[in-house]
TrEMBL record, chains A, B:
Organism name: Pectinatus cerevisiiphilus
Cofactors demanded by this protein: Zn(2+)
Keywords tagged on the record: DNA-binding, Metal-binding, Repressor, Transcription, Transcription regulation, Zinc
Single GO MF annotation: transcription cis-regulatory region binding
Protein known as: Fur family peroxide stress response transcriptional regulator
Coiled-coil parts of chain: none
Cofactor note: Binds 1 zinc ion per subunit.
UniProt-annotated binding residues for Zn(2+): 94, 97, 134, 137
Keyword Metal-binding tagged: yes
Keyword Repressor: yes
InterPro entries linked to this entry: FUR, Fur_C, WH-like_DNA-bd_sf, WH_DNA-bd_sf
Lineage: Bacteria, Bacillati, Bacillota, Negativicutes, Selenomonadales
Homology family: Belongs to the Fur family.
DNA sequence: TTTATATTAGATAATAATTATCCACAAAAA
DNA sequence: TTTTTGTGGATAATTATTATCTAATATAAA
């Protein structure tokens, strides 16, 4: 989560040019908790950058990922989602409305150690995804039934 | 993990016809620990069913999933993998050779309870994926360096 | 500020996993 | 058997993502 100045400096340092499109895409990711996919970012920016193409979104995402400004989230949908919070944390997706929310401060450590020991793998990362029905969708369902 | 007779009975009970292709595809999944994707299954069966098409693989997988004979594994590759072990268990993928292995008997219970309580979601499932370098690939790397 | 040059944005086409469609034919029921 | 319903395989469609190409742009040097 960096401000525009720091992002500018980092892009330059890594040999990438700084463009309004790149800053705008990163800015969208910093200002949402919705874990948008490429198309959602595209739609968000459409009013302000009407000529921007999806290819630009994807290319920018590659760069942001490479310089570790974002992480990629694969919750088993047909498209990937992106997150400006790079600290490792797990996610939960509502199987009704498909929103993806954070589960912060979930302690992986014991699990990771256990797995490393039992598999003899040299672990580099992990992803924990949860699925279920969110409280809002539960309430809606209850209203319909009750 | 069912034998052919039980699978036959189950397919019939659920209103699906029993065909050699369907039994063969399920059989492949029962006799491997490689977590194959559609193409790997296709290649495995090619010598014995030279006219079988990928569409048949996909359609059969849909059915096997629907009657809960297999589970679908999404380890963040460009294709999905399939597993005849339907009991919930986590997986680890080697980032060098891309093999996917089981991590059995990993106890999710505390994590699941913790998450259910903190999110108020009505949980229906979860997926834990680990990434790293497998012992074999570690050995290979060491040989090259040492 | 102007200029030089390396990169980029956007248009467009390509890729590749998965899904849909269609029909001769096979499996189960009668 | 005969009938009926569902299926396999061929083929086309879909769709997220990636590749390619070129005019335009960001940036550093002059
Ligand atoms: Mn997140
Ligand atoms: Mn498995
Ligand atoms: Zn919901
Ligand atoms: Zn390996």
């Amino acid at each position: 989560m960096m401000d525009a100045k720091k992002v500018t400096a980092l892009l330059r340092k890594k040999g990438f040019k700084v463009t309004p499109q790149r800053l705008a895409i990163y800015n969208v990711l910093c200002n949402t908790k919705a874990h948008p996919n490429a198309e959602m970012i595209f739609n968000k920016l459409q009013p302000y950058y009407p000529t921007m193409s999806l290819a630009t979104i994807y290319k920018t995402i590659d760069i942001l990922k490479e310089i570790n400004l974002i992480q990629i989230i694969n919750v088993g949908e047909d498209s990937l989602r992106y997150d400006a919070v790079v600290k490792s944390h797990s996610h939960i997706r509502c199987t009704v409305c498909n929103k993806v929310e954070d589960i912060m401060d979930f302690d992986f450590t014991p699990a990771i150690k256990d797995v490393a020991q039992r598999t003899s793998y040299d672990l580099s990362g992990q992803q924990f995804y949860f699925y279920g029905v969110c409280p809002e969708c539960q309430a809606k369902a209850n209203r319909k039934i009750g």
